[in-house]
Amino acid sequence: MNRLLLSLLLMFSGFTLLFAQEIEIDRSLPEFSFNELNLAGQMHFLASDFLEGRRTGSRGNVIAAEYIAAQLRAYGYAPINGDSYFQPVNLMQTAAPATGQLMVEDLTFTQQADLLVMRGPAAAAEGNVVFANYGWVDAETDHNDYEDLNVKGKIVITRAGIPGDISQAGIFRGVSEKAAMAAEAGAIAIFEVYSLPFPWTAFKGYLGGERMGLDNGSPATAIPYGFIKVQDDFIASLARKKKGLRGSVASSGMVVKKVRSMNVGGILTGTDEKLKEEYMIVSAHFDHVGVGKQGGGAFTEQDSIFNGARDNAFGTISLLASARAFAERPTRRSIVMLAVTGEEMGLLGSKWYAEHPLVPLEKTVFNFNTDGAGYDDTSAISLIGANRTGIDGEVAAAAAAFGKKVIEDPAPEQGLFDRSDNVSFAIKGIPALSFSPGITGFSDELFKYYHQVTDNPETIDMTYLKEYCQAFTLAARLIADRDVRPRWIDGDKYKAAADKLYGKK
Ligand SMILES: [Zn+2]
C-alpha cells in the first residue's frame, strides 16, 4: 500500500480507530458485564411517578438523594462530608411582589400591567422622580451616572442595560447590580425603562416568575427595583426636568422562601501511590423539574409528572454504574462521586460545590460530567467539550469498545457546554466536560421528550442505557488511569483559571 493511500484510508476511517488501537483495554473489567435489568430497575425507580419529577427541594428530590447515598454506601465509598454522604445546599426561592405601583405626576404604573417590581422590600414612599441615564457606576472606566446628580430620597428611572451594552447580557448585568448602585447613592427605588425586543408579557413571565438561587446569606435588594413600560417620549420629557417630577412608589415586597436541598457524594481512594493524591469528580445531576406547571411544558390531568428519565435519571444511573465498577476494580487516581441537585434551577448544586468544595479544588484534576437531556442516535455518544482537555482518545476508545461512535459537540448553537454542571468546575479552572447520549442536534425526536411528561422509563431504550453506562464507565476509568492528568489546551477560555488554580506550568 502506498503512503498516499494509507493516509487517505486513515483520514476516512477517522481518528477513533487510531485511538482505539493505541489504548489497550482489559475486557475482564466489570463494565464489560453490566446487567441491563439492574440498570432498568434503577431507571424505573428514579424516574417513577412516585418521585414526582425530583424537583429541587421536593420530597421526590430527597428520596432520590437518599437512594444514591444508599448505593454509594453499599458499594463501599467513604462519605464525602465528614460522616455524611450529603452536602447541604442552601437555596433561596424568590418571586416578584404581588402588588406594586409607581406614580409619576398624573401617570400611574401598576404591577404586571406596565410595571414589574422584581425585587426589594415592602415599601410605600413619596419622592421626586429623576432620570439617571443608565444608573451605572464603574470605577474602572470612570463612569458614574450619579456623580452630578442628587438622588437622595428620590425615585430613579434609567435606561435598560449598561453603558456600551444594551444586549441581553448587559441587561442581565444591570438586573443584578443596578439596585445596589442606586441604593448606595441614596435613592429609594429604581426602575429601568423596558426596551427589549420581545413582548412585555413574555418578559414579565420570565423575570417576574419564581426564581431560585444560592442562599449565600447576602442581604436582599435594599430598595424596590424593576422595569416600567412607557411611551416613547417618556425618557426625553423626564430628562428635561432636572429637579424631577413628583412621584411615589409602593410595593408589597419580594416574596422570599428558603429551600433546602443537598448534593450527594462519596470518595474512593485510588490505587497508585502518587496519583491517588489527585481526584477526579464524576458528576451527574439527579434533580428534575417537578410536576404540573412547575415543569414548564404541556401536561394533562392524566399525566402531569415530569419524570426526567433521560434528564437525568439516565446520567445518575451511569454515575452509579461507574461507582460500582470502580469499587470492584479501582482506578489509579482517587474518585469523587458527586450527584448534584439544582441543575434545572441554574446549575445550583454544582455551583455550590465549587464554592464549598469537600476535596480541595487544586487536588481535583478533572470533572467528568454526564447529562442525559435526551438522545436521537443510539449508535453514538456525544462529547460536549471535545478537543479541549486532551482526553478525546480515551473517550473514543471507550465508546468504540462498546460499538459506539463519538459525536463531538452536537448542536453548537445551543451552547451546551455552558448549560451543564461541568461549567461550574471549568470556571474554577478544572478541566471539565460532559459525556452525553448520542444527539445529532435538537431534533424533533429530542424535543418529543426534552422537559416533557413523556420523558418516562417506558420510553427508554434499556439496551442503549446499558451500553451508555458501559462506555461512560470505561471512559471515566481510562481518564482516571492516565499517566498524565488532563489539561486545557492552549488558548482555551478556561486555561487562565487553571493556571491560577494549579499554578502555571
Ligand atoms: Zn433538564
Brief summary of the model shown:
It contains 14 helices and 23 strands. The protein is α/β, with parallel strands linked by helices and 505 residues long. Strands 1, 2, 12, 15, 16, 19, 20, 21, 22 and 23 form a ten-stranded mixed β-sheet that branches. A five-stranded mixed β-sheet has the order 5-13-11-10-7. A four-stranded antiparallel β-sheet has the order 4-3-14-6, with no helix packed on it.
Which molecules are bound in this entry?
Answer: zinc ion
Q: Could you estimate the helical fraction of the residues in percent?
A: 25-40%
Which shape, going by the Cα principal axes? elongated
Total number of helices: 14
Radius of gyration from the alpha-carbon trace, in angstroms: 26 Å
Could you give a short account of the major beta sheet? 10 strands, mixed
Low-confidence stretches: 1-21
Q: What is the strand content?
A: 15-25%
> Could you report the average pLDDT, rounded to the nearest whole number?
92
Number of strand elements: 23
Q: What is the distance, rounded to the nearest whole angstrom, between the alpha carbons of the first and last residues?
A: 43 Å
Q: Structural class, judged by helices and strands?
A: alpha/beta
Description:
This protein has 14 helices and 23 strands. The strands form 5 sheets. Strands 1, 2, 12, 15, 16, 19, 20, 21, 22 and 23 form a 10-stranded mixed β-sheet that branches. The chain has a 5-stranded mixed β-sheet with strand order 5-13-11-10-7. It has a 4-stranded antiparallel β-sheet with strand order 4-3-14-6, with no helix packed on it. It has helices at 3-13, 15-22, 36-46, 59-75, 168-184, 200-208, 234-240, 309-328, 348-355, 392-401, 422-426, 444-447, 462-480, 495-502, and strands at residues 78-79, 86-95, 100-104, 107-110, 115-119, 123-126, 129-131, 137-138, 143-144, 155-158, 189-193, 211-214, 225-228, 247-251, 255-268, 279-285, 290-291, 305-306, 334-340, 364-370, 380-384, 405-408, 432-437. The protein has 505 residues and is an alpha/beta fold. It is elongated and about 80 Å long. Helix content is 30%, strand content 22%. The structure holds zinc ion (ZN). Zinc ion binds at residues 311, 344, 373, 451.
